[in-house]
Amino acid sequence: MTAPEPELAQPGEVAFLDGQGHELRQVHRRLNRFRMRYKFAIDEVTTKIAILREEFEEAYDHSPIEHVRSRLKSPDSLFAKAAKRGADGSLDAIAESVLDIAGVRVVCPFVSDVYWIKDMLTRQSDVTVLEVEDYIATPKPNGYRSLHLTIEVPVFLSDRTENVPVELQIRTIAMDFWASVEHSIYYKYDATVPHGLLEELTDAARIAADLDARMTQLRAEVRDLDQPPA
User: Fold this and answer.
1) How far apart are CA 161 and CA 95, in angstroms?
2) pLDDT in tens, 139-178
3) Of the listed ranges 6-10, 101-105, 125-129, 223-227, the one predicted with least confidence
4) 31-174: CATH homologous superfamily?
5) How far apart are CA 123 and CA 17, in angstroms?
6) Using CA atoms, how far apart are residues 101 and 167, in angstroms rounded to an integer?
7) Confidence at residue 114, expressed as pLDDT on a 0 to 100 scale
8) Is 23 an active-site residue?
9) For the sheet containing 67-72, what is the strand order?
10) What is the Cα–Cα distance from 68 to 107, expressed in whole angstroms?
11) Which of 167, 182, 199, 200 is the catalytic position?
């Protein structure tokens, strides 16, 4: 038995499909260009941090930067957050309502380093501070601690300069470890974490804060030993 011939699309259908494909490619291209400027903003900020890190490693007795991570929101995450904030689907509305599309996290050995890095970065003439949320001075109810800044940096493109926001998180190693564990637990339980486990997390946050305080005290004692007698 001969297999039936496949149906051929009619000329009008071909034109419709080609038009759809062209439109989708245009949307994809616009979205990529939109996200590209945030990727470049991450590059600008991480370059600034790398320069500070290298300077301190060469010129001083320790570096206030342990490691640096960055992330660019995926399109799905980007549109979900924009919808949650009531923004329409336009890229301009998304840019106005979502300021953490680009994110950089700096992890430091000591609490004093957190504020040191913040001061050194925000003193730079091309960095504009839009918002500061100090969850170290005032931790969240669950014990989360970190210094959050929304900063704006210029991105120099071929035909224009754009000021692009970047969310900057600065925290200690202990804070980062706690936050990583907390994120994994919330992911595993799909954000519905048992009450007992939440209490354990809050208690662990207190222990992490105590560890930061003790390590700061130990460093101060070691530095006092290094000072020559009067």
Assistant:
1) 16
2) 999 999 999 999 999 999 988 999 999 999 999 999 999 9
3) 6-10
4) Beta Polymerase, domain 2 (3.30.460.10)
5) 54
6) 8
7) 96
8) no
9) 67-72, 102-108, 161-172, 147-156, 128-134
10) 6
11) 167
Domain locations in the chain? 31-174
Q: DSSP states of the chain as a string? A: -PPPPPPPPPHHHHHHHHHHHHHHHHHHHHHHHHHHHHHHHHHHHHHHHHHHHHHHHHHSSS-S--EEEEEE--HHHHHHHHHHTT--SSHHHHHHH---SEEEEEEESSHHHHHHHHHHHHTSTT-EEEEEEETTTS--TT----EEEEEEEEEE-SS-EEEEEEEEEEEEHHHHHHHHHHHHHHHHTTT---HHHHHHHHHHHHHHHHHHHHHHHHHHHHHHHHSPP-
For 168-229, the DSSP string reads EEEEEHHHHHHHHHHHHHHHHTTT---HHHHHHHHHHHHHHHHHHHHHHHHHHHHHHHHSPP
| Amino acid code (one letter) for 28 | H
pLDDT digits (tens, 9 = 90+) for 8-51: 555 555 554 455 666 777 877 888 899 999 999 999 999 999 99
Q: How would you label 210-227 residue by residue, b for 16+ Cβ within 10 Å and e otherwise?
A: ebbeebbeeeeeeeeeee
Cα–Cα distance, 204 to 187 (Å, whole number) = 18
Parallel, antiparallel or unpaired: strands 147-156 and 67-72: unpaired
How many Å apart are CA 78 and CA 131, to the nearest integer?
Answer: 20
Q: Could you tell me the sign of the dihedral formed by the alpha carbons of 196, 199, 204, 210, in that order?
A: negative
